[in-house]
Amino acid sequence: MFAQLALLSLAAFAPLVAAHGTLSGVWIDGKHYPAPMPLENPAQYIVRSVNSVDPVKGTNNPDLNCGHNAQKAGLVADAAPGSTVALSWRNGEGGTWVHRVGGVVNFMASCGNGGCATFDSAKAEFFKVSELGKYPGTDNWYMADLTTGPNGTTSFTIPPTLPAGEYLIRHDLIAMHNGLSEGGVEFYPACIQIRLSAPSRTASAIPSGKEVVTFPGGYSPTEPGVLDPNVFNPGSVYTPPGPPLAAIAVADPNGSTSGGSSSTSGSDAPTGTIVASSSSTTPGSSSPTPTSTGGGCGGSRQKKRVIKRIVQQGPLIKRHANKAAHKRQELPSKKRAPAPTAVVPVQERTFAVRSRVMRGI
Ligand SMILES: [Cu+2]
């Protein structure tokens, strides 16, 4: 019901705000949970709501915690240690996410005995469970997989030995197109409430001590993943910010990697960590497909309507502050090899081509 209303409202304010965006949905082992629209009541969601599609700026910003004025969600989703969590994003128009350069990181924190629906995330002791930058040995970014269409997702694995209990996932896109100078980076944090069953093997301790950080505080304004003058240079190495991966996420007792680390079994094109198209983790049947075909093009056909809506509802969404910066972000993709994705549905391929044409790439 909420999702349908959300889609209707998406259609109502199409262009103008393609540059930023919000989390659009979560899949836990294939089960879909939509994310609230900005300012939407989060009572019927597992994703905490935010009040803006704009990025969070500044590593000391309190909104770096769970997003702009994040509000606790009413629901908590069932999951298990070892579950796959896939996440999709939309731009401010409800179309396809546009940022491709930077990091994708996922943290988790115990919500304690009180549970996540009432948990104050400012107190959360977050440990890192996955981090992604470029596909190994390439200049292709994992984040770009979110730009392939409404079903483009990024995913990670819940550490298989995490104890039972309620946890907050802090998912964060670190858009680096302006991160060549200090303070330019755009953070897009989103928090998701889950409840883990007991692990099938011996539980580890919940990470603590040096493995945990709070937000704000988890990133420094000058660390390489946040400030990187070379981020567009071919062959440059990008290191996502924050603490190292928690030990619980790095190696599981079977010896395989988990936690969405990019080192998957020696393949030159990892497939286990980011799924760029609808797949087992993103069943098309239940996925919310935004109807906007404007993508990142930002036409002006419906400008009047958008402005009217903004006047009526207040500044739900602000115009992008620096369009030139976003143009710059697209430049490197001229040289970019085709994304290393196996199967892209025709519909999405068409969309990708169209948006490239519209952006003049
Ligand atoms: Cu943006």
UniProtKB/TrEMBL annotation:
Residues 1-19 form the signal peptide. It catalyses: [(1->4)-beta-D-glucosyl]n+m + reduced acceptor + O2 = 4-dehydro-beta-D-glucosyl-[(1->4)-beta-D-glucosyl]n-1 + [(1->4)-beta-D-glucosyl]m + acceptor + H2O. Its cofactor is Cu(2+). GO terms for molecular function: hydrolase activity; metal ion binding; monooxygenase activity. It comes from the Eukaryota. GO terms for biological process: cellulose catabolic process. The keyword Signal applies. Its EC number is 1.14.99.56. Residues 20-230 form the Auxiliary Activity family 9 catalytic domain. Pfam families: AA9. Residues 243-303, 320-343 are annotated as: Disordered. It is found in: Secreted. One of its GO terms (cellular component) is extracellular region. InterPro entries: AA9 (IPR049892), AA9_LPMO (IPR005103). Gene3D superfamilies: 2.70.50.70. PANTHER family: ENDO-BETA-1,4-GLUCANASE D (PTHR33353:SF10), PUTATIVE (AFU_ORTHOLOGUE AFUA_1G12560)-RELATED (PTHR33353). This is lytic cellulose monooxygenase (C4-dehydrogenating).
